Amino acid sequence: MRIGELAALVGVSTRTVRHYHHVGLLPEPVRLTNGYRDYRLRDAVALARVRRLAELGLSLDEIRDALADDLGRELREMLEELDADLARQQEAIGARRARLAVLLAEADLQAESAVSPEMAAVLRDLSSGGSRFAAVDREWLALMDTVADPADRGRVLDLMLPLTEPQALARGHALYERLDELDDADPADPRVPALAADLAAHMPDAMVTAMIGTPADAPGGGWLEAMTAEVSPAQAEVFRLLVLTLKDRT
Amino acid sequence: MRIGELAALVGVSTRTVRHYHHVGLLPEPVRLTNGYRDYRLRDAVALARVRRLAELGLSLDEIRDALADDLGRELREMLEELDADLARQQEAIGARRARLAVLLAEADLQAESAVSPEMAAVLRDLSSGGSRFAAVDREWLALMDTVADPADRGRVLDLMLPLTEPQALARGHALYERLDELDDADPADPRVPALAADLAAHMPDAMVTAMIGTPADAPGGGWLEAMTAEVSPAQAEVFRLLVLTLKDRT
DNA sequence: TTTGACCTTGACGCAACGGCAACGTTTCTA
DNA sequence: TAGAAACGTTGCCGTTGCGTCAAGGTCAAA
What are the HTH merR-type domain coordinates in residue numbering (chains A, B) (predicted)? Predict the structure, then answer.
């Protein structure tokens, strides 16, 4: 047999056969005088053996190990491991499909699939003012929504919901405006501690504990540093004081 | 933010961030005077967007397309396609696990997992004689067992089973011996046509139609050529006559 | 001052082949 | 009998999504 016949017989490409030679999975057969490889039936059997394991999902390395150990206990362990692995894959795919189903159902209602639809609603409410600072806050919330795992995502939403009530929104807008006014103010400006105190008063307890409690190295952890870097010195000072105040509150 | 902070914030490696820059998924931010990349919150938002789609299983190319088309209809189609793809994967994995379960159950009984256990039993029966020719036949059957898809595999077994009955086995061994005797005989030897006729008489009808009916380009198709290449000229001639006889029989 | 923890670009590695180049051999066909 | 088609040979690059050096430059703390 020449390589093409062997390949057709077993149902693989000639490239695959040569690849198996290259990686030592299949012994090189004798050559004819013209240099062509000359295969026997036993080569086809060996190749079919390899393919059988490959199609079960074993890597070529694993197949080599399994065949080297002459089809003993080793193979059985590998197969069990493989089965566990496949089970995990099935679960993972199932979870992804579940998330997809949610996304697809919601996509019928709105196309803003960059964030979850609940969070999109929250962001719409918050964005009714033109505050430059509100924009930073919105970016931050959008980030939290994408970065957190689904369980935390619900918690973030719960934290935000009280702030979307009409009175809270009005007060929030006023606070945003006061923050905007500090854009090029001095950090020692008297309005700074006043605003920090009012902000602290405006924040629900649950949000406070969430903000203080987030470990610095978890995803979404360096929030304070990341936000202060975005704002002016006076605004950063507001944050510093705010965090101090909140820490006292716990 | 520097690249490490950004990466930690979103929960990826710095290498991943740079990779996304490299492939154009994430715009390069401004550089500080020392050459460090300087990220803003919106970069984190963009990165998190990308990750969100990536974790759903979209390829980076698809993510680029989806984001370029500004989160419209395109994305929805891709998600649906992805869902269908995942469904197919689930099915494929299920099929593999089913095959694995069979293998594992049988591995308790015997370790000869290169061929299916039923075929292993058939091969044991056939191998009771020391005929060199029987060895070729056994290789061939082992190959058919691994190469054919599961549906065909059962058919092959059905074909073989009649030959494993005691009387059939005895006659089969006698035929093998007569084939072995032709190892270095002349193709014109009078024993050749006689043996071909006896072989034809020995083969069940179902096996005949299976052998004649297999298309030459299907997997396992070139069986005649592959087998004749393994044997001596006189034995090949037996085969030629055998096939002629069998073709008449259909 | 010297670690040590960052950052930079660049390049190789990975799994399992597919595909091409550039060339020789065999086989079919006109 | 010539030429084309269909095989064979080796070798190298491309794929995916980064991980992992290598060989530096930068910056903060001890």
Answer: 1-69
